[in-house]
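thread: overnight batch results

M.L. [08:02]
morning all. the overnight job finished for the chain we discussed friday. pasting input first so we're all looking at the same thing
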Amino acid sequence: MKTKFVNILILFITTFVPSLLLANEINIYSHRQPFLINPFLELFTEETGIKTNVVYSKKGLAQRLKAEGDKSPADVILTVDIGRLYIYDDLDLLAPINSKKLLNNIPIYLRSPENTWFGLSKRARVIVVNKNKIKDGEITRIEDLADTKWKGKICTRPGSHVYNRGIMASVLAALGEEKAEQWAKSFVNNLAKRPQGNDRAQVKAIYEGECDIALINNYYFGKLKFSEDPEQRKWVENVKLIFPNQGENDRGAHVNISGGGIAKYSKNKENALALLEFLTSEKAQKLYGEINFEYPVNPKVLPSLELQKWGEFREDNLPIIKIAELGPLSQKIIDRVGW
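M.L. [08:03]
and the structure it wrote out:
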């Protein structure tokens, strides 16, 4: 009798305990660097008791997820840029989500029409200028960067990078293909040097006098301003941010998103949803500003105090999916003009 009981106990442990343990954790495939999301995940675990395991990679995760199929251990996808999120959707790797919290917390233009992915934070693509050389009001729109008066004054990272493909798609949506390509050609003609480096490098180039104007994502300004490296803090001392296209009848500044979704074959969809809902909560949305200098997607949450110091701005509320849909044509224009 004792042996029979032991056998039953062993069977229970080997059959059910692993699944019970699994149910209290989730696996995340992330394009976001660990140091950017760890504070959120630690707080999530602290509040819910759900453990998080993260696989991080800059590229290749969508292909990995597709190859794994229904055997994939992934529960949640976290990524930056709508273009990357769109790839997962296009490959049918995300599950539709039914969540009143997410629908209430995230505006319609910052989420999938089928509710397969949701924006979690916003980043504005802004113009930075040497405030000692560019007067207030001289540049107010992205379109102004095509003016020949700025020939040899602009620095940029390569146009093929997703951040610049996004701003190109924004211009394309606003102007149409012909005028957008004219803008891009004139913009490239105004470059001070070959497109290179990341957004930080563009601010450094302004500091070193290589150019007076650049395009960056807004959060890089914060990362440099509060960098542990005193040299990097110097780079932003004479730089100011311009949120473009703020005129009364203008479209507003282009914003992109970080976002997430639930893997189609997730074994823990309930816990995966709990994480996404947590990331749109007031507590987490405030963290995006305090840690990453990103703007909240939840309209009920104010930007961090530091972001508020940089000034209010009106954003372009073009459905963010349009930026992804225009990505291929944007890349063709970028290639044609040599950006």
